[in-house]
Amino acid sequence: MKQSGDNKFIPMTSVESGHGREVRKDVYYYTNQIVNVIMIGDPAQGDWVLVDAGMPHSGKKLVEVAEKRFGKGTRPKVILLTHGHFDHVGSIVHLLETWNVPVYAHQLEFPFLTGQQRYPEPDPSVEGGLLAKLSSIYPIEPIDIRERLLPLPEDGTVPELPDWVWIPAPGHSPGQVAFFREKDRTLLSADAFVTVRQDSLYKVLIQKEEVHGPPRYLTTDWQAAWDTVRRLELLQPELVISGHGQAMEGVELREGLKKLSEDFSDVAIPDHGKYVGKAQKP
After folding, report:
1. SS3 241
2. How many Å apart are CA 170 and CA 251, to the nearest integer?
3. Residue 281 falls within a domain, yes or no?
4. pTM of the predicted protein model
5. What domain count does the chain have?
6. What are the b/e assignments for 204-219, b being 16+ CB within 10 Å?
7. pLDDT surpassing 80 at residue 117
8. How high does pLDDT run on average in the chain?
9. Strand, coil or helix: 228
């Protein structure tokens, strides 16, 4: 296994970095610098699943967080990847070397997870704040975890999580997926939409809660991104944990997501940038 050749510490943080929050008895998320790593499972029962693998060089800390919640020597049944961008797989090799468990992802992400293909370059010219301008330093080379990698089941079921389904959520990346549990309408939206304006350094630092489209500097298909937001809005989630920002729920979430779905071209798609093309309402 091999982490990407350009894997390096990225000096980005937020006020919530290093903090975890239980939002359901069996759903917990930990903010690793600026990205959320999610652990699904009831600590009283022991078994659990990890969703995403955090920022580069964070593996040791993520193991410590898991052991604090589930006990010394714990390991997840499986790791689920929403997609393969650097801030979601930055510590995956360390975690796999520690835990020796299978990893599931959408097959469209496989080229980026098996050493075959790098992601398109981030767009520092895109309309947005300082984090967009700095995006040229973000890792884009592929990782290689093929010996542990398996495709998500085609029927939408989620390994080890019978109450959950996975939903295609392309746009930000080709094979991005979201995870949804209907019984309590909990949605893990990955970067299909986020609950902080991710290109604004100030809002990332203070973690101001508001529904936004996917991070602009790494989104390459805006039509697919809009289609995805519309599909997720139709689920009418009660609670969302996105890839970035704090969990949101209730009226504020529903109204924010509805506005994003309806006004995506005005509030999410940047006015300029090399991946910006014409996108029409689904």
Report:
1. strand
2. 26
3. no
4. 0.94
5. 1
6. bbebeeebbbbbbbbb
7. yes
8. 92
9. helix
In contact, 190 and 36? CB cutoff 8 Å: no
Range of the domain at 25: 20-267
Query: If 0-12 CB within 10 Å is exposed, 13-18 middle and 19+ buried, where does residue 43 land?
Result: middle
Share of the chain above pLDDT 70, in %: 94
Query: Is residue 141 within 8 Å of 85, Cβ to Cβ?
Result: no
| H/E run at residue 110 | helix 110-113
Q: What is the secondary structure of 29-64 as a DSSP string? A: EEEETTEEEEEES-TTT---EEE---STT-HHHHHH
Residue 272 lies in a domain: no
Between residues 50 and 265, the one the model is more confident about: 50
Helix H or strand E encompassing 167:
strand 161-168
Q: Facing residues of 149 across strands?
A: 103
Structure-token match 């979201």, residue found: 178
List Cα–Cα distances, 90 to 29, 32, 49, 233, in angstroms: 17, 11, 18, 29
Q: Are strands 186-190 and 239-242 parallel, antiparallel or unpaired?
A: parallel
CATH number at residue 42: 3.60.15.10
What are the tens digits of pLDDT across the range 176-226?
999 999 999 999 999 999 998 656 554 555 556 789 999 988 999 999 999
Which of these, 74, 69, 40, 242, lies nearest to 160 by C-alpha position? 40
Tell the residue number behind the tokens 């884009």, with chain if given. 140
